[in-house]
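User:
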Amino acid sequence: MAAGMSGGVAYLFDPELLLERRLNTEFVEIEPLDVADVALVSSLLERHVELTASPLATRLLVDLATTMAGMRKIMPRDYRQVLEATRPRSNQEKTSTSP
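Assistant: Predicted structure:
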């Protein structure tokens, strides 16, 4: 899994924690979800229910805390480097590196 993944982020539901054994970790890493990820995944699930009436997405939304505990974020290493390189620096970083 994740072979050829070079950009973007994948969110996978892995409540049985089987992903790590099946994931090609040569180019990607499993990361914990942060607050923004939880909000995004929740809104994506809600939208999916609106558009498809998916019984699975509905069940996932009913117990959101358990759902999010089983979610995994897959991040390509190269994509992470691009994000970090293009992230605006904070004012503190700017002043601490100024001559």
